[in-house]
Amino acid sequence: MKKTYWILFYMCVSWLAWIIWWIFAIVFFAGHISPISSLDSSKWLQNTTSTTLQTVNIQSLENTLTQLAQEVSPSVVSIVIKKDLPLYQRNPFGFFRSELWSIETELGGWTGFFVDTAGTIITNKHVVRDPNANYSVVLNNWEIYDARILGLDPVNDLALIKVDYESIPMKIATKSDKLNIGQFVIAIWNALSEFQNSVSFWVVSGKNRIIQAWWEDLSSLIQTDTAINPGNSWGPLIDMTWKVIGINTAIASWQWLGFSISLTSEKVAYMLDSIEKYGEIKKPFIGIYYIPLNSRISEELWISYDYGIYIPEEEWSIISWSAASDSGIQTWDIILSVDWQKITQEFSLDIILQNSFPWEKLKLEILRGWELRNIELELWKI
Fold first, then answer.
1. Model confidence at 118, in pLDDT bands (50, 70, 90)?
2. Of 46, 186, 301, 332, which has the highest C-beta tally within 10 A?
3. Angstrom distances, CA of residue 15 to CA of 7, 19, 20, 22
4. What is the pLDDT of residues 345-380, one digit of tens each?
5. How many whole angstroms separate alpha carbon 106 and alpha carbon 320?
6. Which CATH fold would you assign to the domain 74-162?
7. Full 3-state SS string of 106-130
8. What is residue 68's three-state secondary structure?
9. Which pLDDT score is estimated for 109?
10. What is the DSSP letter of 348?
11. Do domains 74-162 and 284-381 have the same CATH topology?
């Protein structure tokens, strides 16, 4: 009987200890497990929200790019170049040949886009530089029109051509629109002279680049890593506000870097106005003959500046009826900077004038004798 009581006593103590242990465990872990679970849950919700927002932003960007490409593509055209090439007949010994006839041959395809509603297209000068070639324009809907050359820019790789077509012009950025390195851009062009209105996308990599192309020096270029291929010339470079900021005009094939000539609505308006008034694109000139300075010439002239341009003491150094003469520039003057930009071999006076307009006023810093002076010069047109 006593043994039975002891068994019941031990059972009650065991059950009581088990209950106390669970109460202790619940009280102890409640202060540690619950906050951790709550924190993990909060992190999970935060990560989920962030991922959702990123997905929404990427989808929004994709929708913008898709709509942009669809809207502007009808304003981008392909330019086909054809020329009559002669066919020759040789005698059996191959010493002499005689021309039989000529056959029209397609030489390549390039790109351009409309800048007004009257069918005016802007393209590269090197695309339409041959006066003996025939040019035709292929629209986005595959309609073909004969084109005629309106004017070639004498100092920039720009040209205007025209077709008899009521066009939709592209919106072009103004001089006041800010261009930022890293901003998204897209390029539209006739890839490899075959694939019409191809689209590529990425960012602006640099500004105000200067390169030497095989046809001429190019300045104030936009550098981009947007994919570009041969045949892209004069396809537009467009920002996310649907404005053209530049024209794709050259590639550095060893690095696949793309370069675009910076374009503004003011520049296009001036070209159109100049052609309407004078039948050609007039460019500004100063009217001086000068020698670029370097360390050796500076040493000979006993001056401490190794940049700028020197006007020698010659009768023809300053044209009497020019902007230079009108502004008071003299022989022996050394022009150090234009609008506070130093004149160097990389940033020459020719490059400065490439992107200036007649009647525009420039501020010149001049060394005359041992005195620095500031002169305002108003550009004239040639």
1. very high
2. 186
3. 12, 6, 9, 11
4. 878 888 778 778 888 899 999 999 889 999 999 988
5. 49
6. Thrombin, subunit H (2.40.10)
7. EEEEEEEEECCCCCEEEECCCCCCC
8. helix
9. 75
10. -
11. no
pTM of this structure? 0.73
SS3 call for 224: strand
Q: Which CATH superfamily is domain 184-278 in?
A: Trypsin-like serine proteases (2.40.10.10)
Please say whether the beta carbons of 284 and 309 come within 8 A. no
Q: Mean of the pLDDT values across residues 198-208?
A: 84
Report domain extents, the chain. Answer: 74-162, 184-278, 284-381
State the alpha helices, DSSP H only, in the chain. Answer: 2-72, 265-278, 295-300, 323-327, 349-354
Task: Write out pLDDT tens, residues 255-292.
Answer: 567 888 889 998 899 999 999 988 999 888 888 999 99
| CA-closest candidate to residue 130, choices 79, 194, 75 | 79
> In which element (H, E) is residue 251 found?
strand 244-252
**Distance between CA 236 and CA 253 in Å, rounded?**
19
Task: Name the DSSP letter for residue 311.
Answer: -
Show Cβ contacts of residue 253 under 8 Å, excluding neighbours closer than 6 positions. none
Domain 284-381 carries which CATH code?
Answer: 2.30.42.10
CB of 109 closer than 8 Å to CB of 78: yes
pLDDT at residue 92 is higher than 60: no
